[in-house]
Amino acid sequence: MSHAHRPLWAYSLSAILLLTLACCGGKKAEPPSPPQEPAKTESREAKVEKLVSTVKKCSRLYTTEYQIHKIITHEDELKLKGSILGIDYDFDIPAGSRSIAIPIDATVKGYIDFGTFNESNVFFDGDHLEITLPDPKVELTSTRVNHEEVQRYVALLRSDFSDAELSRYEKEGRASILQSVPSLKLAERSRQSASRLLLPLLRQLDLGDNITITFRKDFDENSLSTPTN
Length: 229
Known about the structure:
Layout: H1 8-24, H2 44-58, E1 60-84, E2 87-113, E3 122-125, E4 128-132, E5 136-145, E6 151-154, H3 163-179, H4 186-204, E7 211-214
Parallel strand pairs: 4-7
Antiparallel strand pairs: 1-2, 2-5, 2-6, 3-4
């Protein structure tokens, strides 16, 4: 039995219907999403406020640490002083001297306290941003006397060093260590460490690249705050 030939236009119509079904996929067309509003740009004041708030959370930033070994020495002589027939005399008594050398190991840390950091530390001059850091400070975090290496000499006519005297010499030694801190150049190290903390924040807040991070103009190493307690 022979089949009747279908006209060419019938095949074309079937192909168009199949293509239409494939493209639609049997799903309902979704309306286009509304255009999104452009993100609002933060003002410079808002960025500075966010910077200050973030930095203040850091509170105390330790920037440097030094291990210092110092030998505290003390020497005194037993003297005889007076006056005979209007003639003054003052001389050392033989076998009346004593001396001591006390080795002390100390840890000194430098830090910046950002608790006082505020908008007045941030200054704009056109596109130039200058941040003035709070003054760096130092503290003596630990001291240890190596009692096994203490050297002392006490002459026959003298009494040994008392505990009160030893305690006083050690306290003087700690104060002497803190007095030598300006020679360690802690300020520049503190500035560098603070810069490493602040620069990523400044970049995130888009505060520009023309930035100076410094201390107050009249600050020097002798201005370091060195509490003795």
